[in-house]
């Protein structure tokens, strides 16, 4: 392998100068920098992506902007932790750093200055929702043509890059599974409609019922906020309606776990008294009693794909697509909570 | 509240100049910059910590360096996700960014150039172990007197800042709980001794037995690697030794969950055939069947404390301590897996 000494010799500079150029340290005559980079290239000197980013005046960082939610340990939720694991893998394999920042969802976030101040070369937006302030921040980013990608949330603007899962189809298959087993009275505990992924689940739920000739009954549709506590609270109306329910579809595992806990506290036997199908296939899904039938979402793959596409675009602007639009498929995992 | 206009007026510059100074954008005469900062200060103009960091030529980022472990979704492990949630909270509340990077544990990581290239102002090292390459990277960092902190791992070097949990005491109390319930033949499934926190658990286990007049029996001490799979594999020797075991202490919840799964597959009834005490009190601990008696570790608080101490040091070098050395207490959570 080529070493720093050989690069220094070919460029006619000291080894220290080679290091300074490749690490972007201190001021440097442009001609010297060019000579070093040229020599490194000719000798196939393995440039660390970060070092070479610095040499080109880039940050070497992929930004990830998360919503700040007081008291929630965001990294400990399966959704964010898996997305970040996937993003982290892509970033690591390309030698980038991952710069995490928090936004207040109620205020339009100034993404653009992250690029201007060279803190990031590209950005992934996690946990975005439909509220005006969020849309405003993202639309500004799209207007500037900067490389970014929104995760798992749709926006009207065709200039917004998106990597998402097909939650309509995932939900359709979840409800279809219950219908196939002969259950007809299927409730739905959904998350907030400010997320397009909640609305997509609702569309899939409605379509599955319609295809089976069943009218959607709004009185057995409940709303939580994707937290375990909100699932536990939903046990009160669900228990009240128990005589009208065969089964319930729940928009994530956390709420399903809270719901099952709450129902059990009120004396329910599960799955005998109510069949449950959840969503995510988080680590906890297979260790609950009964284990959860749930829709597996490839969050890790989604995070990795978004990051890889963005970093590829940074390295090769010409041949890569300008707007990313990917939708990944989910997979139903059948366990005992749905009566199997 | 003071606005940008008033700062611009007092400093005798345009509003755009105020923004450029506070966001560190582009070149700027030093006298102009000083005048803007002085005016902002006099008017108590609320400087965003990051903006002012940039104005001072800092990155505004706290670095977090994680070990790269192929195929492991690091953010999805309770240990890392809770530490990161705590670090994230401190970083967010002080207006910093969190720059995540991965290291190959087999190679001495060049922390020092992260500071030199102004990618970070301070660093937290997660998941460090005792191997030479790791020690070398960290000792170099200590030699340079740069602000950093190692999480939950002890090093001989007194210049290394550490925030850890008291795993010796936590383990002592876990084993003591089993002894108090009359169980005498207590096995131990530990993680790798390359982590000081594994060795500390072993010390606590041994001390609890000794205090009860019981000789430590090496033949019922097992080793895993903190993964669920390694716990499931340990079910083979544990099942073989079952006639010699009343209970087992396991170094984290993941391995305990794997072990219980493996034992059940071999026909064991739990907790009837074997009492289990685990470690961490992760989300999964309370949803397993039986729910896990486990040692709660304040990972979130540890992460937050380390980040707050480092960021405080950055903002006020004079009055803050140079070396951080904190040890937080654990708490035993009693549930059904230990026979209650």
Automatic annotation (TrEMBL), chains A, B:
It holds the Pfam family Peripla_BP_3. GO terms for molecular function: DNA-binding transcription factor activity; transcription cis-regulatory region binding. Coiled coil: none annotated. Keywords: DNA-binding, Transcription, Transcription regulation. SMART domains: HTH_LACI. InterPro entries: HTH_LacI (IPR000843), LacI/GalR-like_sensor (IPR046335), Lambda_DNA-bd_dom_sf (IPR010982), Peripla_BP_I (IPR028082). Residues 2-56 form the HTH lacI-type domain. This is LacI family transcriptional regulator. It comes from Cohnella herbarum. The lineage of its organism: Bacteria, Bacillati, Bacillota, Bacilli, Bacillales.
């Amino acid at each position: 392998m080529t070493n720093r000494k050989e690069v220094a010799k070919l460029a006619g500079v000291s080894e220290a100068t080679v290091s300074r150029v490749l690490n972007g340290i201190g001021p440097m005559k442009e001609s010297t920098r060019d000579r070093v980079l040229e020599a490194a290239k000719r000798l196939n000197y393995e440039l660390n992506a970060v070092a070479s980013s610095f040499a080109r005046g880039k940050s070497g960082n992929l930004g990830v902007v998360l919503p700040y939610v007081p008291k929630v340990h965001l990294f400990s939720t399966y959704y964010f932790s898996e997305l970040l694991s996937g993003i982290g893998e892509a970033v690591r394999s390309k030698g980038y750093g991952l710069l995490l920042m928090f936004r207040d969802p109620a205020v339009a976030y100034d993404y653009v200055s992250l690029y201007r101040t060279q803190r990031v070369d590209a950005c992934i937006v996690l946990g975005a929702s439909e509220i005006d302030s969020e849309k405003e921040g993202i639309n500004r980013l799209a207007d500037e043509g900067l490389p970014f990608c929104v995760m798992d949330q749709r926006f009207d603007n065709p200039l917004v890059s998106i990597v998402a899962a097909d939650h309509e189809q995932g939900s359709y298959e979840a409800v279809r599974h219950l219908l196939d087993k002969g259950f007809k009275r299927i409730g739905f505990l959904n998350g907030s409609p400010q997320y397009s992924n909640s609305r997509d689940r609702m569309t899939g739920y409605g379509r599955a019922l319609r295809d089976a000739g069943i009218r959607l009954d709004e009185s057995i549709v409940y709303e939580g906020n994707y937290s375990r506590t909100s699932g536990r609270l939903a046990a009160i109306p669900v228990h009240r309606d128990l005589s009208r329910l065969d089964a319930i579809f729940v928009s994530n595992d956390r709420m399903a776990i809270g719901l099952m806990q709450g129902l059990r506290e009120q004396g329910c036997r599960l799955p005998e008294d109510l069949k449950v199908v959840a969503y995510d296939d988080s680590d906890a899904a297979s260790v609950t009693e009964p284990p959860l039938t749930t829709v597996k979402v490839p969050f890790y793959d989604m995070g990795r794909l978004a990051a890889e596409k963005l970093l590829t675009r940074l390295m090769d602007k010409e041949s890569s697509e300008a707007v990313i639009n990917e939708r990944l498929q989910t997979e139903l995992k059948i366990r005992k909570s749905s009566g199997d």
